[in-house]
């Protein structure tokens, strides 16, 4: 017997944020509920759901819309991207005369590489700092929206031996995926620490090393693995990277400069449909989670965990800014803060300006002066 998951079940985003859903009962089983948990049928409708919203009239466009199909590079297709799924499922894309193809991911899939190489029209990148660094390295990519108002990655530890602050990591064994090394290094430097003060242990995306005592801290996703482990009776503590000084957006929507120029109309329409998809998801989190489980049978997702995750991530999808401007919105000042952090730490290959790495012009056009697109 083994405590490791199959690679199919522990696919994770190239940004280093774990995306597998883990069940624990001696033997780790991907996406399985606790043995005592009653199974839930994915197609079962959500209970006590509010009336379905209807789409508001889209912002004015000049004449008939040209049909378009967009390739989108996303991460593991669980509820992290529920709003993107609902944009299609609820017909919001169809109303924009659009279709989308969501590309498969894997441990070696780098969204920036795929998009900049022309393999996708747009992508979703786990951390905003990665986009800033890419632009600083001469890769012409730019953000035009964000799914998460703050990066939800961080260090998970067991409540019996918690790591609540960066200083608590001194002398400990820290499990990091390859993509987590950059964020962790940044957190260390921001807090006047060095990785030599601890033992860095290479890990993948299965948190077995934490449960088995091989590491004291494990890089994970705030509303994924901790919820799954809690469902198995394991209490954890999460040190969210954002709270440790790593103040970046999460799940950044981006494209190349050329695509932003050549396909602006299609991207605006895609944004509009996706905003509606997320508004729908926020209002009907349980229904969207059940649909996600049903549409991704190969992932073996646990419906109860996906419902819990979808509800928990609402606090990351929404913020004071989104309440004022609308979902997926972003603030140039937050991008400037991110640039300043990387510049201070000497992590930029060349200077970059806010306008080099982000634009809100497409969001302006997608919203058309509104703050919500569903009624």
Task: Give a written overview of the molecule.
With 375 residues, the chain is of the alpha/beta class. It folds into 2 domains: 68-150 and 248-367, D-Maltodextrin-Binding Protein, domain 2 (3-Layer(aba) Sandwich); 152-244, 3-Layer(aba) Sandwich (D-Maltodextrin-Binding Protein, domain 2). The chain has 16 helices and 12 strands. The longest helix has 20 residues, at 264-283. It is globular.
**Main β-sheet, in a few words?**
5 strands, mixed
- Our estimate of the beta-strand percent is 15-25%
Give unreliable regions as ranges: 1-51, 53-63
Radius of gyration: 20 Å
Gap between N and C termini, in Å? 52 Å
* Strands, count: 12
Cross-sheet strand order for the largest sheet: 4-3-5-12-6
Shape: globular
Report the order of strands and helices.
EEEHHEHEHEEEHEHEHEEHHHHHHHHH
**Level of helix content?**
25-40%
Q: What's the CATH class label of the largest domain?
A: Alpha Beta
CATH topology of the largest domain: D-Maltodextrin-Binding Protein, domain 2
- The second-level CATH architecture of the largest domain is 3-Layer(aba) Sandwich
User: Structural class, judged by helices and strands?
Assistant: alpha/beta
Going by CATH, what is the homologous superfamily of the largest domain?
Periplasmic binding protein-like II
Name the average pLDDT: 85
Number of domains: 2
Discrete helix count: 16
Secondary-structure map:
Layout: E1 22-25, E2 27-30, E3 68-73, H1 82-89, H2 92-95, E4 98-103, H3 111-116, E5 122-127, H4 128-136, E6 141-148, E7 153-158, E8 173-176, H5 181-190, E9 199-202, H6 208-211, E10 217-221, H7 225-230, E11 236-240, E12 250-256, H8 257-262, H9 264-283, H10 285-295, H11 303-312, H12 314-317, H13 320-325, H14 332-344, H15 354-357, H16 361-367
Parallel strand pairs: 3-4, 3-5, 8-9, 8-10
Antiparallel strand pairs: 1-2, 5-12, 6-12, 7-10, 7-11
Helix pairs in contact: 1-9, 4-14, 9-10, 9-16, 10-11
């Amino acid at each position: 017997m083994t405590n490791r998951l199959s690679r199919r079940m522990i696919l994770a985003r190239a940004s280093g944020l774990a995306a597998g859903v883990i069940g624990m009962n001696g033997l780790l089983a991907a996406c399985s509920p606790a043995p005592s948990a009653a199974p839930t049928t994915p197609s079962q409708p959500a209970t006590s759901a509010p009336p379905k919203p209807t789409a508001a009239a889209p912002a004015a466009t000049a004449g008939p819309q040209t049909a378009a199909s967009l390739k989108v590079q996303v991460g593991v297709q669980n509820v992290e991207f529920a709003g993107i799924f609902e944009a299609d499922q609820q017909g919001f894309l169809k109303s924009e005369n659009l279709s989308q193809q969501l590309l498969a991911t894997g441990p070696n899939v780098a969204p920036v590489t795929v998009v900049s190489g022309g393999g996708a029209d747009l992508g979703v990148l786990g951390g905003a700092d990665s986009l800033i660094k890419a632009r600083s390295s001469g890769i012409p990519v730019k953000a035009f929206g964000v799914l998460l108002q703050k990066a939800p990655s961080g260090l998970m530890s067991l409540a019996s031996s918690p790591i609540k602050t960066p200083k608590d990591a001194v002398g400990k064994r820290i499990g990091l995926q390859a993509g987590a090394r950059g964020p962790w290094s940044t957190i260390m430097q921001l807090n006047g620490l060095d990785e030599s003060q601890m033992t860095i242990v290479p890990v993948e995306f299965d948190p077995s090393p934490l449960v088995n005592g091989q590491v004291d801290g494990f890089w994970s996703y705030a509303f994924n693995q901790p919820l799954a482990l809690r469902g198995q009776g394991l209490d954890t503590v999460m040190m969210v990277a954002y709270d440790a000084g790593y103040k970046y957006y999460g799940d950044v929507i981006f494209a190349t400069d050329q695509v932003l120029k050549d396909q602006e109309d299609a991207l605006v329409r895609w944004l509009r449909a996706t905003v509606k998809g997320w508004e729908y998801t926020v209002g009907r989190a349980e229904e969207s989670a059940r649909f996600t489980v049903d549409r991704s049978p190969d992932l073996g997702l646990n419906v109860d965990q996906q419902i819990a995750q979808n509800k928990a991530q609402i606090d990351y999808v929404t913020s004071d800014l989104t309440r004022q401007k609308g979902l997926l919105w972003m603030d140039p000042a937050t991008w400037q803060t991110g640039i300043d952090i990387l510049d201070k730490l000497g992590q930029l290959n060349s200077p970059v300006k806010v306008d080099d790495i982000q634009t809100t012009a497409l969001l302006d056009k997608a919203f058309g002066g509104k703050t919500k697109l569903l009624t």
